[in-house]
What we know:
single chain, alpha/beta
Amino acid sequence: YMVGTMLADWGMRVTCAASMTEAMASLHDQDTDRRFDLAIVDARAQEGGEDDVLRRLRTVPGQEHLPVVLLSSITAAGTRSSVLTRGYAGVLTKPVRRRALLDLLAEVLRA
């Protein structure tokens, strides 16, 4: 939840989910006035696999074009291009640095 804390410190409204089931429930919640601008998913905490998570997020009505960022400890040179090719909006590498998160937000939300 460290990323969520950083985002909240910058005045952003954050919804954290401990599981994919919880995240999907938040996205489907019709009683909320929240519109999600970004999803950050942890590669290690996913149920089913990275591509399954992306596919499931894309099935939520109104969220088909939600930018999804993969949070990963992998720093291999080909990782970023591989992740982008699969449909993710970006990759955030652990440990998360504030500057890297801010730069990624500017890049992803600007699009």
